[in-house]
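Q: Study each token:
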Amino acid sequence: MNTRLRFILFLALLMAATAAQSADKSSKPPLRFEDLVREFDYDRNALLNIREEHKEERDGATLIELSYDSPRGGRVPATLVLPPGKGPFAGVLFGHWMMPRSPVANRKEFLEEALFLARAGALSLLTDAPMVRPGYLAEKDQLKGEIQNAEASRQQVIDFRRGLDLLIARGDVDPARLAYVGHSYNAHTGGLLSGVEKRIGSFVLMAGVFADEEYVFDSKTPAVAEFRKRIGEEALRDFFRQYAFDDPVHFVGHSAPAAVFLQFGRDDAPIPEPMARGYFERFSEPKKIEFYKAGHALNAEARKDRVQWLAERLKLSRVDPEAIERVPDPGKEEKEEKD
């Protein structure tokens, strides 16, 4: 074979290899909602293995400290708040924020609110997220930490679904009147649940980010910009592709037939109003959005609005707006930042 033919053959092989690499990159199948939903499958018939650890009466309600098995391993610490009477009661799942240094970065955040709702006829389950459970060790490497967080989100969604199984199995909860309330980290969880869990008819999602990949690449927040630079665009894009099940943007457009109420603070710098309104547009109808003169913690006005909205949605006994204002504040942080 002469030199020219060798060169032509080499060039053809090089072009074929390049084309194959390009085809491989472009041949990745598009993300399908039907596939992402299956990431949160679990055995609904498995035993919950509920263990009650403490019971007390408070403000006319019964508080039961308990735990149940997580399908992803370990136990889910939870508080059950029971109204007086025999029901049937509305059922509410509460998911706390993850604000660093907050004394209520756990299931205690919504306890006073759940006690108030108990007097109106709602039975509530408040759980601890995987990151605040005993034995959890956070990854120090940031990218590994993001992977760990994605897996924790998967577990949190499934654990809430099991919590719903727990409520319905009691027999005193009306399965047609179920709601979810989540703040910040657990607003994110609620965005996932809105597309996955169709037994829940009402969602209140507070100060949440509902398009993670967009947030990481579009946010002007210095900490987020520094994170992008340190990890690198290619590594981050690969992460968001591999762990797409943890990005609510793929789920919120499937929130119907549930009703969704989004709450944001106008002084919550990492989530400016245009960004929040962009999230709102992605949810299905019916939906509602409100902004408050508050930071990431929101405020008493937001609490009053969501309690009244839940009372209407869940057909609870009439709630007195002045009584809502007397619900103790779980605590505000001097420094507010997106968790």
Q: What stands out?
A: The beta strands are 51-58, 61-69, 75-82, 89-95, 122-127, 173-183, 202-206, 259-265, 287-292. The chain has a mean pLDDT of 89. The two ends are 66 Å apart (CA to CA). The first helix runs from residue 3 to 26.
